[in-house]
Design goal:
Shape: globular
Strand order of the largest sheet: 3-2-1-8-9-10
Number of helices: 12
Radius of gyration: 20 Å
Length: 343
C-alpha cells in the first residue's frame, strides 16, 4: 500500500513540543549548553569531562555544535589510525565514546517518561495517520512511539519500525502494548522509520534490532557514569547506513518519500552537516520529477523562514505546477491547524 502521508520529524519537533520543560531537549547548536545543566547518576561529571575536551579543542564551548565537534574528533581518530603522532597521542576513540553516552543521557533526561500533556502535540499530529502512511525521524528519542494515539491505525513495537524487532516480551515493549491495547494487536498498519537509530534499540550480532527493556535508565557506579549501549548512528561524517538495520530503513524511507501524496516536514533544518539526508531528499525530488509523480501538498513547520525557503527550493521539482506548500511557525501551529481537520 502506498502512503498517503509521510511525516518527517527533526530535532526541532521534539524541542518545540517540550519547550516548557525546565531543561528542554537540545538542538544541535545548543547541545552542550543543555548538557551542562543536567545532573544525577554521574551525568554532571560526564558532561564536565566532555566540556573540557570541547574547550581543549576549540578554546570555547558555547556555540560549538554537536555535529561539528563529533565530526572533528571522528576525523582526527581516523587520521590517528594511519598517521600516528610522535608523542602524546590523544585518545579520540574515548572522546567519541564519552560523547555518545552523553548524547544518550541528554535524550533520556530531557525527553524520558513523557506525560500526557507533553505528548499532546505529537499525538494530535499522529492522529492524521492512516493505514499505509509512514513516519520518518532523524531523532534518537521516543517521542513518536510514546505519543501514538489509542484511536487509529494499528502499530506495535514488534514490526512497526519497518523491521522485525526482538525483545518484545521485555519491560518497555510489554508496558507499551498494555497502554495501547486497542491498536497493539496484529500487524502494524503504518511504520516509524528511525533513520539514525533509537535510544531503545540495541543490535544483535546479526545487526537485527532488539528492544531495550529499560531505555530510560541511566546508571552510575561510585558517582561515575556507567555507559549503556544503544543503537544510534552518531552525528559524524561516517554514518554506516550501508549496513543493516539502517540499510533497510533508508530504502523504505526513500520509497515512502517517492510515493506519498502529502509530506509534512517538522523541525528539520536540512543541515549541511548531514549530506546523506540531503542527498536522500534530493534524489527523491529528482525521481519524482522524472516520473511526473508530484506531491499534492508539502507542509513545512519550522520557526526559521530561511529553512522553509530552502525546502521550497529543494522540493519545487517534486511539486510540479499544481502542488501546494503550507508554512507554519513550528510544530505547535501545525498541531493547532490540523486539530479536527480530516484528510
Amino acid at each position: 500500500m502506498k502512503p498517503g502521508l509521510v511525516i518527517l520529524f527533526g530535532a526541532g519537533a521534539t524541542r518545540g513540543a517540550l519547550l516548557n520543560r525546565a531543561v528542554p531537549p537540545p538542538v544541535d547548536r545548543d547541545f552542550f549548553d543543555i548538557a551542562s545543566q543536567l545532573r544525577g547518576r554521574g551525568t554532571g561529571r560526564l558532561a564536565s569531562r566532555v566540556m573540557r575536551e570541547v574547550f581543549d579543542l576549540y578554546r570555547h564551548v558555547s556555540g560549538v555544535g554537536l555535529e561539528e565537534y563529533f565530526r572533528d574528533i571522528e576525523a582526527r581518530a581516523e587520521i590517528g589510525e594511519f598517521a600516528k603522532p610522535s608523542n602524546q597521542p590523544k585518545n579520540w576513540a574515548k572522546r567519541q565514546a564519552d560523547l555518545v553516552e552523553l548524547v544518550r543521557r541528554v535524550m533520556v533526561l530531557t525527553t524520558g517518561e513523557l506525560g500526557d500533556q507533553e505528548s499532546a502535540i505529537h499525538r494530535r499530529i499522529l492522529g492524521r495517520l492512516r493505514p499505509g502512511d509512514a513516519v520518518i525521524t532523524f531523532n534518537y528519542d521516543m517521542m513518536v512511539e510514546e505519543a501514538i494515539p489509542n484511536e487509529g491505525p494499528r502499530w506495535n513495537p514488534s514490526d512497526g519500525y519497518g523491521l522485525q524487532a526482538g525483545g518484545v516480551s521485555l519491560t518497555w515493549a510489554t508496558r507499551w502494548q498494555e497502554r495501547h491495547g486497542n491498536i497493539a494487536s496484529g500487524s502494524s498498519q503504518f511504520r516509524i522509520l528511525k533513520l539514525h537509530g533509537s535510544i531503545n534499540w540495541t543490535l544483535y550480532a546479526t545487526n537485527e534490532v532488539r528492544l531495550k527493556p529499560r531505555p530510560y535508565v541511566v546508571r552510575a557506579r561510585k558517582g561515575v557514569a556507567v555507559s549503556d549501549k544503544c543503537a544510534v548512528l552518531p552525528p559524524g561524517w561516517h554514518k554506516r547506513i550501508n549496513v543493516n538495520p539502517y540499510r533497510k530503513l533508508w530504502r523504505k524511507a526513500r520509497l515512502a518519500l517517492e510515493h506519498c501524496r502529502d509530506l509534512a516536514i517538522i523541525g528539520y533544518s536540512l543541515p549541511d552537516t548531514d549530506p546523506l539526508a540531503r542527498a536522500l531528499l534530493a534524489e527523491v525530488c529528482r525521481s519524482r520529477a522524472a516520473r511526473g509523480q508530484f506531491l499534492r501538498r508539502l507542509h513545512l513547520a519550522d520557526p526559521d523562514d530561511h529553512t522553509k525557503e530552502r525546502f521550497c527550493e529543494l522540493f519545487a521539482p517534486a511539486l510540479g505546477a499544481k502542488g501546494h506548500v503550507y508554512r507554519y511557525d513550528g510544530i505547535g501551529e501545525l498541531g493547532e491547524k490540523w486539530r479536527g481537520v480530516q484528510r
